[in-house]
Amino acid sequence: MSEHDPACIFCKIAEGKIPSRKVYEDDEILAFHDINPWAPVHFLMVPKAHVPSLAQAGPEHAALLGRMMTLAPKLALQEGCRPYPKGGYRVVINTGDDGGQEVHHLHIHVFGGPRPWAKG
Ligand code: AMP
Ligand code: ZN
Q1: Is the pLDDT of residue 1 over 50?
Q2: Under DSSP, is residue 114 helix (H, G, I), strand (E, B) or coil?
Q3: pLDDT number for residue 2
């Protein structure tokens, strides 16, 4: 099975076929600014390999997800979120229709910066 789904927009971003405003990249992970931000800081973190959602995450993804979660605070500060506890950020994984997931490639939203935000 291919690592990438040719119909998936985040796979295309991960492959560099669609441009993005990059925040971070390594062998397994890409982070880029959300195209429609609703907080002063709003970026997405994705595995480069196609995983449709958190519902498909298994033991083989545990290390990758752990790396993503521990990277999120570092990137949040790098992108201008203020430090915990006065500052902070929100880390969200929308999953499935009831979870509000629109792009079916697992992604972590990181929201932050001074309020008010457009949503949330
Ligand atoms: P979700 O509703 O959790 O699936 O969130 C999908 C997010 O992807 C939304 O916040 C969109 O604004 C964002 N998005 C969609 N297309 C792009 C793109 N080409 N570049 C950056 N962000 C995108
Ligand atoms: Zn994908």
Answers
A1: no
A2: coil
A3: 62
